[in-house]
Design brief:
Oligomer: homodimer
Shape of chain A: globular
Distance between the termini of chain A: 42 Å
CATH topology of the largest domain in chain A: Jelly Rolls
Number of helices of chain A: 7
CATH superfamily of the largest domain in chain A: Jelly Rolls
Strand content of chain A: 15-25%
Number of domains of chain A: 2
Largest interface: A-B, 44 and 44 residues
Radius of gyration of chain A: 19 Å
Strand order of the largest sheet of chain A: 1-8-3-6
Order of helices and strands of chain A: HEEEEEEEEHHHEHHEEH
Number of strands of chain A: 11
Largest sheet of chain A: 4 strands, antiparallel
CATH class of the largest domain in chain A: Mainly Beta
DNA sequence: ACGAAACCTTGATCCAGATCAAGGCGGCGA
DNA sequence: TCGCCGCCTTGATCTGGATCAAGGTTTCGT
């Protein structure tokens, strides 16, 4: 369950310091957070929080990836969010959450007990403001995903997913080759996109056959023809892409 | 365009005073808001804001209903939110929005110019906190809708939509008959649910034939068999419904 | 190094919902 | 009052993606 990890540092040296809920904090505020936090670790596949379970702490995701998912009575599930480093888990003012949170890779969380944190939010506008920004960014992402789920074809969904990963990994590693890591299995991708795993596999294969993408192994791919990929997403040509 | 309306009142008497962005404000704060606000009116069908247009004001919806929608290159559209009285339009910190806002009925907005409002958010924790609550509630709603769009059948989508309206109108009018008003056309409902208008019409008909609902006219219906309706939504039996 | 389990691919078939098509109904302006 | 137009219903047909099915491949524990 609890996996050891070496990313436990003081807030000042934290890798997500400038993007997480603490981004706007000055060094005094950071000192308070530093004394409140504890780290927790989860292995890939572990459930971090169950829907409806009393919420004892809130947290920032430090390393790894986690999914938010909702389930229907008969077991159909839909992923409703993908958390990456600096994303926030839990919401002040609620004692439970409406979805399950699962570690998709090994995960490190920076945790704060809920009630002291809520007090902090009341007293510290910098935290409240940042929390609002994070919530509004997630809302934008959720709405973008609603368009995908409601109106895009399977091919467009896959292309959008790959393009999203390309854009994101491009920000991190500035080198040309655009090697992309899929942190999810075909089954998890299907849950994310509102498809079945067979359909995901088929459309990966056809994009591969068309020379748009190439796989080095099952979890690593490369975009060979970015214009074709963007064309396949069905989105407006927004042009805001840096070559 | 601009439709006259009689709901222009002082904040203290405002019908949405206890639910809108001003909900947590004390009377001094309310006085400031009162002096900043202006009302605007829109007729059913008018576009309130276009995607990407510079955002000059933010607003609370006072009366009527408005939809948020996103569009793909080829014209397919998906409604990504339905705004009702007390809901908030716009986001402090951004100069534009990512979707179109359209009046679905005649609408009254309580508007604040963006930059003074942003200043107010900085200085007034009560406003910032309430704004965050509203954003997080919308995020919950968006995720619930992602489950619907990604995994529910057409019948389940329609049943969920009707049950949502039933729940909401039940809160407002406590009388038994549960007469529900559809503010949307079949086409708009289809855009909301990620379906076509024909499919919406067909499933309304079949729920009618089964005696679950009854229409008095095209825009007014009654729930005859609430348990059957809830069964048809595909959701967990949550039991949290007051008879 | 071996075997089992988890994961992925590809093929065949089926079906829910889209699309195409043809009226019906009701409200509104002339 | 009539006729048009916007909206809704219902039927016929088509099709994209689900489902069912059968291996292939990688990973991991022993």
């Amino acid at each position: 369950m609890q996996v050891p990890n070496i990313t436990e540092v003081r807030c000042q040296e934290c890798p997500i310091r400038h993007r997480a809920v603490c981004a706007r904090c000055d060094s005094d505020e950071l000192e308070i957070l530093n004394s409140m936090k504890t780290y927790r670790h989860f292995a890939a596949g572990d459930v971090i929080l169950w829907r409806g379970e009393p919420l004892e702490y809130v947290a920032s995701l430090v390393t790894g990836a986690a999914s938010l998912s909702k389930t229907l009575e008969d077991g159909r599930t839909q992923m409703v969010g993908l958390l990456l480093p600096s994303d926030f888990i839990g919401r002040p003012g609620r004692t439970e959450i409406e979805f399950d949170v699962t570690a998709t890779t090994d995960v490190t969380l920076c945790c704060f007990n809920r009630s002291p944190f809520e007090k902090l939010v009341e007293d510290t506008p910098h935290v409240a403001q940042r929390l609002m920004e994070l919530a509004l960014d997630e809302l934008d992402a959720a709405r973008e995903w609603m368009l995908l789920l409601g109106r895009k074809t399977a091919r467009e969904k896959i292309a959008t997913f790959v393009e999203m990963l390309a854009r994101r990994s491009h920000v991190e590693q500035k080198d040309a080759p655009r090697l992309i890591t899929l942190y999810l299995t075909r089954d998890q991708i299907a849950n994310y996109l509102g498809l079945t795993l067979e359909t995901v596999s088929r459309h990966f294969s056809s994009l591969k056959k068309e020379g748009v993408i190439a796989f080095s192994d099952r979890h690593h791919l490369q975009v060979l023809d970015l214009p074709a990929l963007q064309e396949a997403t069905g989105d407006d040509a927004d042009g805001g892409f840096v070559s």
